[in-house]
Amino acid sequence: MPLAAYLWQRIRQLGVQSVMGVPGDMNLELLDYIDGVEGLSWVGNANELNAAYAADGYSRVKGCPGVLVTTMGVGELSAINGVAGAYTENVKLIHIVGTTGMRAQMARAMIHHCLGVDPDHRVYAKISESVRVAHCWLDDARTAPGEVDRVIRECYLHSRPVYIFVPMDFVHVPVPASLVDHPIDLAPKIDSEACTSAINAVIERITSSSAPAIIVDALVHRFGATDIMNTLLDQLQIPTFTTPMGKSIVAEDKPHFYGVYNGQVSLPGVADAIEEESDLVIDVGFVHSDSNTGGHSRKALSMDRSILVAADYVQVGCARYEGVYLVGFLTRLSQTLTTSPLPALPRLRRSLSLPPPSSPSDANSTHITQSWIWKRIGTMARPGDIIIGESGTAQFGFSDATFAAGVRYITQIYFGSIGYSVPACFGAAVAQGEIHNEGNGGMGGTKGRTILVVGDGSLQLTVQEIGTMVKMGLGNVIIMVINNNGYTIERAIHGPEQGYNGIATWNHRLLLSALGDKNGEVNSRIVNTKEGFEEVISSPEYTDLNSIQLLEVMMDKMDVPWRLQAQIDLINERNARMKSLGNEE
Amino acid sequence: MPLAAYLWQRIRQLGVQSVMGVPGDMNLELLDYIDGVEGLSWVGNANELNAAYAADGYSRVKGCPGVLVTTMGVGELSAINGVAGAYTENVKLIHIVGTTGMRAQMARAMIHHCLGVDPDHRVYAKISESVRVAHCWLDDARTAPGEVDRVIRECYLHSRPVYIFVPMDFVHVPVPASLVDHPIDLAPKIDSEACTSAINAVIERITSSSAPAIIVDALVHRFGATDIMNTLLDQLQIPTFTTPMGKSIVAEDKPHFYGVYNGQVSLPGVADAIEEESDLVIDVGFVHSDSNTGGHSRKALSMDRSILVAADYVQVGCARYEGVYLVGFLTRLSQTLTTSPLPALPRLRRSLSLPPPSSPSDANSTHITQSWIWKRIGTMARPGDIIIGESGTAQFGFSDATFAAGVRYITQIYFGSIGYSVPACFGAAVAQGEIHNEGNGGMGGTKGRTILVVGDGSLQLTVQEIGTMVKMGLGNVIIMVINNNGYTIERAIHGPEQGYNGIATWNHRLLLSALGDKNGEVNSRIVNTKEGFEEVISSPEYTDLNSIQLLEVMMDKMDVPWRLQAQIDLINERNARMKSLGNEE
User: Which residues cross the membrane (chains A, B) (predicted)?
Assistant: First the structure.
């Protein structure tokens, strides 16, 4: 079996069906082997950064790694920002790079895509060191299969990107075909004793607590623990919060769900409920980055009030249990509770405030406002739908939406790279289609929709991936372009009227057509009012989606979600305080 | 004077008038100071990779560095592939990155755009190490002005990218305003004695040679030696060749100019004239990369037949003269020859073959062929025009074109990153406009045009920069889209009918309009025949250009320039030979 065939077989075994990337002369022969693997196909993105973002979106929906193929140097570097995003947001990615052959590498030949005179062909592999958890060079037929298996395992253990470098002259080298018969061991080696101790300690703490709370955060999703987390929550019935990055992991229709905790940038009562009124806070799969903690405005809890469930350890008070991993821990905790249920736990001590109703002025306004649209898109989403929110106002706004169970929400909050959402939407929509074809999509027979919400500024960075959606004939995508005439989030932060926050004025109604959609003009609409918005989203084209739809939503340049303003105010206040101490953030 | 003002003043002093980049919350306050510098303005690109390519194109036309501003991490990494291209092609670039403030850096705070837990905010500065020649952190008001000056000097000395990292909280710190009064010393320190020795040795060798030849290559342009090189060639009257990367440096209407030398991938007679018939070959500003040497098919010359004039040394036979720099050396050589002219030198020994005329079948064909179009675009270009050729068939084809003196040709052959050409065209067009406004554009009063030739595949990678052209109201750009239904160059290399060499089918006639051009549809045309092509390029809209024009040129999927086919054949033969020896390229 040729080495390339082995590689693609292994990747298919993980559940991957679509391979992202851009062809180049150093990877063409590698791509030849994709079609030979049943159920695996090549996508072909518009550029490499988009391919990386698409692989990221694909992974978030399917749970398996997203895979992208690039060419040494030019392609590899173009993709690196997307890989870095996957790294910091714990998304599984396998980045396969086709490189020069070994003879050219050893001769340090000045082949195109190299750097300067006497070039080190492996210099790019050093460049990506900080954005991956493992890599291998398939430059030895004897070790190559083992190396592929090793880096794939690392990809799962850390839920982060890995790189596989394939010199052109090793694509066809033979490896034993029988090796693919044994699946790769993807599970971490749990310290069973530590796990048991951790479970006992956690149960003991919960049992003795009078007001416990749980915060469910992003890593629960990334490490594939969404289902077991919800099972466990049903068992525990403890008041549950999520975070901006964790949103949509917890079924939001459950009585134990109380909304988004984001430090001081939360709805009234939320921070108090956790920081003041709870005597035990279990923080599961946490990512304590700035915009996931209200600009680091969470109040620190004393050790004895907190339990941390991280990707690879559990900490109960001062005791840290190493070798205890997220899914395994939650699974075994759930099993323990099934055999020995807890005594009935206290419900939340007080009824929390709900999201404040739209202010009267807003309720009366006919035009579309920030305080209205995110909640409306939230109620628009049906089980099986995926919502992608771009960095910017959408990201801050969607914390106010309530999603039906079975709605997935994707956004990139910690890395926060604008332009992420369009290719991620493409990858998510491809994944959604695959899940649907396997009979697992949607609920009640409704086909899931992938709904992208992107600002007019962010759209411009990666717009060409809409062409790939058209090329693939995707029929499950709604693209909402928030047209607020430039980078509104930046206007809110600094320079509201500065020229640098302006952008080129595009004609969004022609975009689909220009990018190849024969029905593009018919399927592109523009709305200025809530009424117009309602009309469009309730039309059969949207409710019974079978072609790409683009909706341009006109909004005020300076209208921002209250959460964004609250976080900016908080940081400005802190900076003013620090400045008076001679030290600015 | 605030540090940021100092930085922008210094940059303006280099001749820079336009700053590329994308705004982000960590660079907004830095951007505030641009408008305060007379003659400097912010552009605002559609994304960061495009900004880097645009800065590259701008630098190639203006001679000063291209400048781009990004935000830490997300922007910085998105741009890195464009910076790497500038590095390997010796283009001056100043990449300014707005970063987190020092307090957040020292606390290793999890601020958006960072990597993981306990993040090192300076990790990205390590990532770009291999693609720059110097960098500095402006985190100390006392040293910052000196650091700015130092890295700018390094940018010029190596003609390669440098990075300047600006923590948010150092934007406004005061520095002495008087520092800008002394210009930065940008010239290398020449070893005068070595230079004199080198000049004597070179003159001695030329005088004793019976059949000398000169090859003028890319670094002559990159180190700003184009004018002095042409002066020197007029003095020397030695048969002169150029390379694919050096094309358009030498005035092609001169009797001493004999065309493009590209190893075995040259017109008949060229390789022989240099490799067999010359007894002295002076290789000036060379870049010996694969596609600049016919796939490394140049015949190696014995030491005693060759003189190398590199960026920072001159080698005559076995003697290497260090501390001798390109411009200084050529200038002093020219001065020496002015005071002591050489005896009349022999002209080339034989009349070289000229490019073969189009084959009869091609001459009779009405549709547009590869063997026809490149020469035709060559004759179409007027003094002051800039031609940008994308990696792919254009790059191989343009070696057959003959350019009028004063036509500049830009392409990225060594790095060869597809997608380069669209933003580079934007940057070049901005630079051309600035030169025109200074009264130096075009010749005979004709305003120069920037003519982009890009394939339908490459166009998709970076298409959004056309929107920036529209936003800026550029009226000097002609975009020719070669529509040959996918990646033709890759079809020629491998997998002619493979799906991965296909692309999304766009409606190019709607592109300009979608990207905001109100006259977009009128200014977008499609041609299938030579006659149609002739008609369009001779129309007043093209000869008297004052708005962006887009021309879709339909060509055969499998038609390729003869040079591309010749290089592929050559490499395939070599690989077959190596394979029989058990080692493939």
Answer: none
A401 and A266 in one domain? no
Residue finishing a domain among B135, B156, B181: B181
Helix (H, G, I), strand (E, B) or coil at B108: coil
Regions of chain B with pLDDT less than 50: 349-350, 354, 357, 441-444, 584-585
Q: What is the ipTM of this complex?
A: 0.96
User: Do A422 and A292 reside in the same domain of the chain?
Assistant: no
CA gap A284, A308 in Å, rounded: 6
Q: Which two tokens stand for residue B125?
A: 């500065």
**In terms of domains, do A170 and A50 share one?**
yes
Number of domains in chain A: 3
* Residue owning tokens 């915009």: A291
Closest-CA distance, A503 to chain B, in angstroms, reads 7
Q: Look up the domain containing B364 and give its range.
A: 360-561
pLDDT digits (tens, 9 = 90+) for A443-453: 445 689 999 99
Query: Tokens 């030169």 map to which residue?
Result: B435
Give me the pLDDT at residue B446, please. 65
Q: Are residues B391 and B528 in the same domain?
A: yes
What CA–CA distance (Å, rounded) separates B321 from B53? Answer: 35
pLDDT at A444: 47
Residue linked to tokens 């399917």: A62
Q: Are residues A497 and A438 in the same domain?
A: yes
Same domain, B167 and B227: no
Size of interface A-B (CB pairs under 8 A): 270
pLDDT tens, position by position, B376-391: 999 999 999 999 999 9
Nearest to A534 by CA among A386, A373, A401: A373
Contact B47 A500 (CB under 8 A): no
Q: Is B506 on the interface with A (CB under 8 A)?
A: yes
A283's tokens: 């923080």
- Show the tokens assigned to B255: 């009797």
In angstroms, what is the C-alpha Rg of chain B? 24
**CB spacing of A290 vs B110 below 8 angstroms:** yes
What CATH number does residue A79 fall under? 3.40.50.970
Same-domain check for residues B306 and B401:
no
Tokens representing B289 are 């990369």
What global pTM score does this model have?
A: 0.97
Q: Which of B113, B121, B221, B508 is catalytic?
A: B113
* Interface with chain B: mutation pick from A288, A460, A552, highest number of B CBs within 10 Å: A460
Is A514 in the same domain as A413? Answer: yes
Closest CA to A435 of A10, A14, A15: A15
Is B425 in a helix, a strand, or coil?
A: helix
